[in-house]
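Much of our argument rests on the idea that a fold can be written as discrete symbols. Part of our work consisted of pairing the sequence of a single chain with a tokenised description of its backbone. No coordinates are needed to read the tokens, only the vocabulary itself. The record that follows shows the chain in one-letter code together with its fold in token form.
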Amino acid sequence: MNDSLDRAFAALADPTRRAILARLGEGAASVAELAEPFDLSQPAISRHLKVLEDAGLIAAGRKGQRRPRALRPEGLEAPQRCIEELAAYWPDRFDRLDEYLQAATKDSGQ
């Protein structure tokens, strides 16, 4: 895997960051708005936002003094593609296992 994909999965591994992404799915928000539902300080939320930005999952805008964060849906394309490739791999393996088990059962006389 490449570094950007590793950063994306590392960012997505944290439940707080996933909750922030879910909130940003509803629209852009300030750090204060994002911190509101959590029992975390704004600096802690800012650290989470930095991880999400470094992973390419969100972007900071500018509205006067405010820097609202917004979701970057294209940032999820590489992790989604990786998961889809892995998911496509397993059904084939399970089909082969099923064939093997059926053959083994017939060979043993059961």
